[in-house]
Amino acid sequence: MKQTTRKAAAPGRPEKYPPDWLGMHRMMLLIRHFEESVRSLATAGAVPGLVHLCAGQEATNVGVIAALAKGDMIASHHRGHGHCLAKGANVFSLLAEILGKDAGLCGGRSGSMHFIDLDNGNLGTNGIVGGGIPLAAGAALAARARGGNEVFVCFFGDGALNQGLLHECMNMTAIWNLPVVFVCENNGFGEFTAIDDVTAGPSIVARGEVFGIPSKMIDGMDVRTVFTTTQRAVARARAGKGPSFIVCNTWRFGGHHVGDKQDYKMDAETKRWLARDPIPKSGKRLIAEGLTTAAKLKTLEAQITTQVRDAVDRVRNAPEAAATRLAEHVYG
Amino acid sequence: MKQTTRKAAAPGRPEKYPPDWLGMHRMMLLIRHFEESVRSLATAGAVPGLVHLCAGQEATNVGVIAALAKGDMIASHHRGHGHCLAKGANVFSLLAEILGKDAGLCGGRSGSMHFIDLDNGNLGTNGIVGGGIPLAAGAALAARARGGNEVFVCFFGDGALNQGLLHECMNMTAIWNLPVVFVCENNGFGEFTAIDDVTAGPSIVARGEVFGIPSKMIDGMDVRTVFTTTQRAVARARAGKGPSFIVCNTWRFGGHHVGDKQDYKMDAETKRWLARDPIPKSGKRLIAEGLTTAAKLKTLEAQITTQVRDAVDRVRNAPEAAATRLAEHVYG
Amino acid sequence: MVEPRVITFREAVLEALFLEMHADPNVMLIGEDVGAAGGVFKQTEGLFKTFGATRIIDTPISEPGAFGMAIGAAMAGARPVFEVMFGDFMTLCMDQLVNQAAKVRYMSNGRASVPLVLRTTMGTGANLGPQHSQGFYAWAAHVPGLKVVVPSNPADAAGLMRAAIRDDDPVLFFEDRMLYTAKGAVEADIPLVPIGKARVLREGRDITLIGIGRMAQFALDAAKRLAADGIEAEVIDPRTLVPLDQEALLQSVRKTHRAIVIDGAPRSYGVTGEIASIINEDAFDWLDAPVMRLGAADTPVPISRTLEPLWRPDAARIEKAVWTLLS
Amino acid sequence: MVEPRVITFREAVLEALFLEMHADPNVMLIGEDVGAAGGVFKQTEGLFKTFGATRIIDTPISEPGAFGMAIGAAMAGARPVFEVMFGDFMTLCMDQLVNQAAKVRYMSNGRASVPLVLRTTMGTGANLGPQHSQGFYAWAAHVPGLKVVVPSNPADAAGLMRAAIRDDDPVLFFEDRMLYTAKGAVEADIPLVPIGKARVLREGRDITLIGIGRMAQFALDAAKRLAADGIEAEVIDPRTLVPLDQEALLQSVRKTHRAIVIDGAPRSYGVTGEIASIINEDAFDWLDAPVMRLGAADTPVPISRTLEPLWRPDAARIEKAVWTLLS
Ligand SMILES: Cc1ncc(C[n+]2csc(CCOP(=O)(O)OP(=O)(O)O)c2C)c(N)n1
Ligand SMILES: Cc1ncc(C[n+]2csc(CCOP(=O)(O)OP(=O)(O)O)c2C)c(N)n1
Ligand SMILES: [Mg+2]
Ligand SMILES: [Mg+2]
Fold first, then answer.
1. Is pLDDT at A83 greater than 70 in this prediction?
2. What's chain C's Rg over C-alpha atoms?
């Protein structure tokens, strides 16, 4: 009954403190390098199963999560490494899990798509599109019942917009006024299908408004926009005013999964989005504002490169799970 | 492969002909008397299982279906006797089915909630709330694929508004521009729960508009309003312009099912709705317009009373299904 | 020990719910019309008045979303009892049940769990027809990570409900609606019944009758009739299908050398196959005949008053099967 | 008869789809990325070019709604092949499958039917983990009104797919992704394979190995190894679980007196229980030992490269089981 003794989160009002733009930049860099390493490892055949990388979507991952307090929780999805890192997952544990190693946070049995990290308030990545949505909404219901003041975010892709599950959860969080922030990472595609081909109606934000949920579409390539928008939604939720819906327009720089040839993308479009890469954009602004220097950013990048490379090296040599693990933890 | 040889419906443009207001009145009367008989039979213990009566909702049942051509199809729901009759079900066959008799259209195995009558273009009542919605939408998809010009109506209650399934089907019919008319019979309650307690958002019609579907809320107690609104939606659908959504505000004069004590209803509200009974309203208008006389309506009512009474008598004496029927028609 | 009273199955389970909600503020009740309305079968009557709208949640008709939320609530510290009004509607929750609830403990390497009860109703006898009669415990039993309870009497139902709520894994709890008015002795403090222990409802030496849920009651009825003819049937109620108390079943069969497994769901690919196979495998040398299986017809459930009763086993059919097996 | 060629399982089924779509304009294909993209496993490649967007429908990620629509389409004269990308997502379609598709013929007293194929993939071997490996044919087999096909080789898969599309009832078609690249001789006109007939893949006198889907291939591998040691195993692929060709299984067991049923889904409450029970019941006197069952572990499927292969039976484990049973 471990969970029943969990305490309510500390009041946590990150909105009171000045935003840590530098920290967000650092996290985006970490995610980018992490994903690049996973891509290399996957291409080399070191990753069991399928991996879906979030390179390109870092501003969304980081901007949203940076607006959360420690006890707040998220539910992620199949393209979720960035969320996991931003929510505090240990680089080595996550990488080891993705490689299916025994030392992975989930014993190497869950991999990229089923990574659960409750200690960091992460209800998990999810192999079922939309699967995390009710988990976050339900966690909010539990928090409300025990008088907690935590806020719950569920991330989902544009593909999940057409799942009835999302509508059901939006409706329920709205009637019950639950502290949930729905975040759609709209990268324009679900697998190889363009969002416009499968998504009816004049506007995506209307899909939240229809339930009376304040809804907004924003530039998901700008970490500051994402952060400040989320911050308002979080404050609203924490104040007991109910759910919000944020659509972050973004782009996955890679394909659906490692190995996808991406013939369904147009070159011009790809170029346009690459030019909006959230990381250089954030870097330039930090320098312009005097919050850092080009040299310092270089050092930072070198540190991160080393950090990730070290993790890769350690993980490569980490042992696979022993046979005895197969039947562990089916029941408590 | 019986179905593969089904022909496309006759072009059917009922919109060209003057509305048969008198016929609609007659059908509403039939439904009312039918439902009263079922109520008596159920109260007397003659009906196996649960029955949900539609008395009060006749204008919606009849007004919608009168706007359809012969080859058009409907999908009904648990409160569906009115739809079945309006779509052409034989009074005796339907009643026998509701009483679980062998002579019932479905052999007495399906009863009130699972009556299927494809010959009359009725995909069936349904014991699963919302269950009929994708059936009608899918039938539309099939019709489109074979070049047919039929129109498909799905009826559902306000309770189904919060089922994800509805949203999924609205989205798909919208992106594929299918000839579907979504008809919500909004009687204010799902079982014992008021719609407002479980349904978020400023407006029900927005639930269709969000998918770009023309949506309208109308007086479901006025058969003429229902008819003309549906007629426009049907014409739109038949012209290849896609789905529509109509919310008919109505009231179930009885409870959720026969035996429901209805303590959750307010007396004043009940009174107000009873005063809007669609049948006297329609009758008065017919007389005022000179389309009939009070005397003729009396005769009509007497005829219908006799018709239903005769059916009841026949059904009462009809035999129960023989044991050999149990295992029939599981597979073809 | 507190004096037992004779109360109904429904009352017993209601008391169990009350006790657990009272004992643990993390216990919540979630479902359709379970609050103010007290449940469509009066199975939650009175709880709302005591525990209110933060702990008893009336949902819209949104089974997949609402059940998914119950799982999220469980992951975050609540202990929800989620009610699926009719077992037939469990079909709407299978994704959340199987791909989330059943696997969270495994996928998290034991770091998270889903302490949740999915409570649902089933059974024939009230002519509710094809979409309001089914119980899919066979499906649930096939999914690693789920526990499956099918009680047959008030005391077990209440004690198992308490145990299910206290269990740290997802437990599916299947109630036969026709048992709701069945009466039995229940001690006032409602002793916990451990999940995974079968119960011998009647001792006998000639044959073992293993009945699932209400079928255990029919088996008892059959046993009484058979006793008049000098046949002493042992009647066992496994009570929980997962974990299954194999040893209790085997022990009985080693004594009687004959067994019939009786189920009220369609026979093919239902739970009788598993139970019969286990006995055949592990007590082969003690068996005088292969384990016999009685199940419902492999058809949907008809509403007809003449057909519905033919659909599943009853005492008469069990009695007949015993004579067949003994001859 | 047209000369057989050696082609892959995937190619064979693709040809079957092509033939049926060509022969009957009512056949439609509905699923996610099955159109222009040609299927995420390239299992529908090229069809879109020939049959276009009215007959090949790329759906949003809306499994319950889209599958429900396929049922409605089938009731209204189409013959849809609905694709569920991963068998794990079938959980999302259970309501429509069980409460509508399976029951329409019965509920309409034979006046309506649902001529539809639900095609899905399953299987381990590519480390796809807990939510991308499962095959729920045991559930489907428990639902009256559904037919269930689990092919093990290219010719059967193609012939059964044709038969499934022509069948007037809902047929579930489970494809093991690891077989997609398996090759076999397939006659160019793709003969229909009747639904309900088992196939003896290898004759033998010492023991009967009954393998479901890919497990039949592992059983064949095991049989080859055993032959080197003088054991002649008969290998039978039931091919369809509903209807099940009981007679073919019984005939073999009456000859060999021993049987192992091998399945690639969790063993408990899976299909092996039903098949073993049928043999125990109907061939009890011919059996020298109880029917043995091999199944996958009663755990979710782990992604780990060392753990995943341990999860389900393989040739080595089957061979070992044969030695155990023979000794
Ligand atoms: C219920 C379900 N249906 C289908 C899939 C297969 N699938 C995996 S990812 C994906 C596309 C998801 O698109 P989106 O939500 O936009 O996320 P993105 O991959 O673009 O980040 C699909 C269809 C799945 N995992 N779960
Ligand atoms: C999926 C599903 N959930 C729950 C039920 C139980 N149920 C039957 S009718 C009903 C209320 C339906 O309300 P509404 O759609 O407004 O129709 P009304 O009865 O008001 O005509 C409910 C919850 C059901 N039959 N199916
Ligand atoms: Mg996307
Ligand atoms: Mg209603």
1. yes
2. 19
